[in-house]
Amino acid sequence: MDLMINEPFPGFNRPLEVLRTCHRRLLACLERLEHLHAHVPEHGADATAQAAAQRLLHYFYSAAPHHHADEYEDLFPRLKRLGDHPASHPQLPAWLDSLTADHEALERVWARLEPDLLDIAEGRPASLAGAPEWVARYRRHLSLKEQAVLPLAEHLLDADQCRAIGEAMARRRDIEIECRA
Q1: Which residue from 1, 69, 89, 158 has the least number of CB within 10 angstroms?
Q2: Taking every annotated instance into account, which residue ranges of this chain make up the domain Hemerythrin-like (predicted)?
């Protein structure tokens, strides 16, 4: 599982592959959260639970905000503008609206889950009651991106659009890149 969370990025000159890597990392985090949710009732906030909660919090505080911005500030607006493209899918606008609504719902559940993770990270007992709902919602969210949106993006976005997305992703992370097709 740690290998997936630490999987290297393919390079910002391939922004859709970077997003897929982020999705695999997110799935690994969801799996870690499921394990933590099962671990805590029996073992409490022991050292194993604390370490897992700290790693999850670190990921969701550092990498996840960049990923969300990559999609909501760069990818999705470009795809919305291509909604009338002949190769587009008639459901693309609905998919993007659904993903945006999902993100808002995920944030609401995170607001309930985060304090429990903070408690566990500090060795205090917590239930992680919101974990199953958050994991299930996040998996559905990622599935729509992986099964529908990213494959369509591969067909709709040209090299210049991908380069612009990759450059924005790198800037967001304070990384200087040389984008090549």
Answers
A1: 158
A2: 15-153
